[in-house]
């Protein structure tokens, strides 16, 4: 008789423990959002409760949603945009440098061609004068 009541007590304890354990598990994304001062923490909290009724399908997405936000950098996209902006300006600078270098190479090729033409003219006139 005592073992029956003991077994019933253990079953009730396990059921209550599992019930509160599942609720605590589904509050993890909300706790993360609250700790990070997430702007959508209420929505994450409510979606955690909805996830209880959708067989926990939403829970991994809630966890991801809660961890994406950081108070110091927000969603993190502005940093990427700033880096892309800086890279764009560096590429423009490099393009200008390449254009300048191309112009210098063209000028050097022209002066070299002129000097070669002048040397050819001098050598042909020297050969005519020697004859």
UniProtKB/TrEMBL annotation:
Source species of the chain: Photobacterium atrarenae
Residue spans making up a coiled coil are: 84-111
TM regions (residue ranges): 6-25, 46-66
Keyword field contains Membrane:
yes
User: What keywords sit in the KW lines?
Assistant: Coiled coil, Membrane, Transmembrane, Transmembrane helix
| Pfam families in UniProt | DUF3302
Name of the molecule in the record? DUF3302 domain-containing protein
């Amino acid at each position: 008789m005592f073992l029956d009541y003991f077994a019933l007590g253990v079953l009730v304890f396990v059921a209550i423990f599992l019930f509160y354990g599942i609720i605590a598990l589904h509050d993890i994304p909300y706790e993360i959002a609250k700790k990070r001062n997430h702007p959508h923490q209420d929505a994450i909290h409510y979606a955690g409760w909805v996830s209880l009724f959708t067989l926990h399908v939403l829970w991994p997405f809630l966890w991801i949603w809660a961890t994406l936000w950081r108070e110091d950098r927000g969603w993190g996209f502005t940093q990427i945009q700033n880096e892309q902006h800086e890279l764009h300006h560096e590429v423009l600078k490099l393009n200008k440098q390449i254009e300048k270098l191309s112009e210098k190479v063209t000028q050097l090729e022209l002066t070299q061609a002129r000097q070669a033409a002048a040397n050819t003219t001098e050598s042909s006139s020297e050969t005519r004068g020697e004859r």
